[in-house]
Amino acid sequence: MQLKGIHHVSAITANAKQNYDFYTNIMGMRLVKKTVNQDAPSMYHLFYADEKGRPGTDLTFFEIHRAGQTYPGTRSISTTSLRVKSDKALTYWKDRFQKYQVDHDGIIDRFGRKTLSFRDPEGQRLTLISDEKNEGVASGDSWDHAPVPQEYGITGLGPVHLTVNEASKTEEVLTEVLGFRKKGTYEQRVVYETGEGGNGAEVHIEEKREGKPEKPGRGSVHHVAFRVSDEDELKKWEETIQASGFPHSGIVDRYYFKSIYFREANHILFELATDGPGFSTDEDENHLGEKLALPPFLEDKRKEIENHLTQLDTSRTRE
């Protein structure tokens, strides 16, 4: 068994409307599913991804209206990366961030790749990473109806950056339980990879032994999910996690994929998720994310759920 790479990253927003505006109109990502948190259906769960919503391209957000400020620290997924095709694309994005007054840094080299760090309006910590020298897991395709030229568009998720108190504990989980390989180091961070490797299959770990745990809120990351081929393999992973001694959720049916959740030794929430069946299970591919989608087990509560949600117009017309 081998995990294929990053499946999705799920974060927290306090304002779904503002979040939708930023990630579609500024970042040019496609909303491929407007649904709810299945464990708390009174809140939105928004999925932004590539043109088809492929696994490995999903950045998702739970809307928690009263989410307070995030106080960064350890035991956290500190930065999420988004992939672009080329170094030239980063220059485009730097100009675009200046135009739209998006808080950002300069273009720098990290671990042999060009990167551009920035923050969304709620302080979500993000980095664009160039695939120009990338070898490994293939990216998706940027959305052809985005307000961003397709050659510069976002094509998927890149490495996630974890900040922990004791790096050896997380390393043990990654390598001994989940089968990651150590790839190298840079700037006091250690890089691990899985599957075919590359930008879409890496976890970067930074150790801060005396750091205080992060206080999560709006702009923080809730969990990271890793890709599993299918349910049969997920069952084998369930046995592996059980044997490792970590408490876990068991297999949970999320309708668009099936998952297992557990907290690694530094208390960061990991998820293993199947590649399928995917987001076109209940919507036409040309109209993903335009209406509120509910899994069958919540459909009979649609009116009640809609009454608790703030209005969010995501309708659009495709040419």
From TrEMBL:
What keywords were assigned to this record?
Answer: Dioxygenase, Oxidoreductase
Q: Which PROSITE patterns match?
A: VOC
Q: Which domain of life is it from?
A: Bacteria
Q: Which CDD domains does the entry link to? A: PcpA_C_like
Q: Which GO terms describe its molecular function?
A: dioxygenase activity
Read off the InterPro entries from this record: Extradiol_RC_dioxygenase, Glyas_Bleomycin-R_OHBP_Dase, Glyas_Fos-R_dOase_dom, VOC_core
- Positions of the VOC domain: 5-131, 156-275
Pfam families in the record: Glyoxalase (PF00903)
- Protein name as annotated: Ring-cleaving dioxygenase MhqA
Question: Which organism is this entry from?
Answer: Halobacillus karajensis
Native organism taxonomy? Bacteria, Bacillati, Bacillota, Bacilli, Bacillales
